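Example 3.2
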Amino acid sequence: MGTSKHSRPCPAPTAVPRSTERIHLTRLAAELTGYGVWARIIEDTTPYLRVSHPDSARAIEDVACERRRHDHAFIASCGIYLGTSDSIKLTAKKVAWLVGTIDR
């Protein structure tokens, strides 16, 4: 099979910069593993954390990390403030509750 004269070569993958927001999302993802959820960083214009309940196709929450004056804030997809980069454990508990892996 030949190459189409209209095809373009695929660009080489570029390295994703290690932004401060991405580092905090990675820390939150690591903390969430203790709650038995799936968490992965989605590389978009700004990275975000997609967290899901392993037993439910609908229990999914996207968590963004926003730079603030003295720290970073974690924000749920609906705009709810979840916590700061200084309160990773509490933020992870709130996210686990949102996707239904814990009761309180």
